[in-house]
Design a protein that fits this description.
This protein has 12 helices and 10 strands. By secondary structure, the chain is of the alpha/beta class. The protein has 2 domains: about 170 residues, Rossmann fold (3-Layer(aba) Sandwich); about 80 residues, Rossmann fold, CATH 3.40.50.1100. The two termini are about 25 Å apart.
Length: about 300
Amino acid sequence: MTGHPRAPDPDPATALRPRLPSPLQEVADDRFARHGVRLLLKRDDLIHPQLIGNKWRKLVPSLRAAAGRPLLTFGGAYSNHLRATAAAGRLLGVPTIGVVRGQELADRPLNPSLARCTADGMRLHFVDRSTYRHKTDPATLAAVLRAAGAEDAYVVPEGGSNALAVRGCQDLGTELRGRADVVAIACGTGGTLAGLAAGLAPDQRALGIPVLKGGFLEEEIRRLQDQAFGGPRGDWRLDERFHFGGYARTTPELDAFAADFETRHGLPVERLYVAKLLHGLVTLTSEGVFPRGTTITAVITGRPF
């Protein structure tokens, strides 16, 4: 990395100047209204211009724990988490290292997402997919740290989902207490849902829409809640039907849906998470899953890159 990082602020949350609580916006949409369902949008995409949505909530606790040490974290070629970590490092003067899945990517031009990371000062370290799959194994992680020249780094897991992040996302649920019957969110690694559910009131439910296929997320959310709180918290469930082929996958149907939502409501719709969430909610509403009189809040965790 070039230049000399400035000393980090003692409290990253103060230095990053978030907008909290994030706004709650009602939208009039006949696909919900004709079933007697009210739709609100929790605009976590407006928390911070560069640490979008749940990334701010998940990263700040780890930034505090790192106490100015370099941050090393993991992600794929289009990882929102890598971009957010790189931006946080630039804003706070903290070195960042991104371990990227796919050794073959090292010989290709950087895509816009990874180019943004490097522009923000992140040093990229590419690993083969087998190594990446075993990144949580202590011996593999130690080898990655050595190869990246980052033995002194504070390690943040893929997606930022650790016990600190889960407790940070608990505030999201607390902000929504009494504001909705169902709070829905798109899920990648499950950390935000794990914290959100813990912060909601007992009479509220959390709904997760996974954007990856594989059916592994329920076990992971339970593990994260056990790490963060010592056991299960909140009333939550997942609906696995709306991944549209898996992470970073879209279809013409999903693109058309997102474009239509943008036209209806003047809201830019991020395709990899938010579009899948909103499509899932429209479908579930049409299926009669939500009784008349239900208020749903959809958490908007990102915006188009």
